[in-house]
Description:
single chain, alpha/beta, 3-stranded parallel sheet, 3 helices
Amino acid sequence: xxxxxxxxxxxxxxxxxxxxxxxxxxxxxxxxxxxxxxxxxxxxxxxxxxxxxxxxxxxxxxxxxxxxxxxxxxxxxxx
Length: 79
């Protein structure tokens, strides 16, 4: 199956902004990273308020350079 989402002139996928409040995620591994990357591929994903241990996995694996991570939900929503 192939999903095509049109991209606006500013590079954002129209109507597809997702803000994930990650403040209560207590465990992160490759399964979570795979899910985040799949969501990011089809939306404009923003990750908000991840706990320190959840923030470290994307940083260690290099995924943090792909995802937009902010300290608060409000900051992620406005990014």
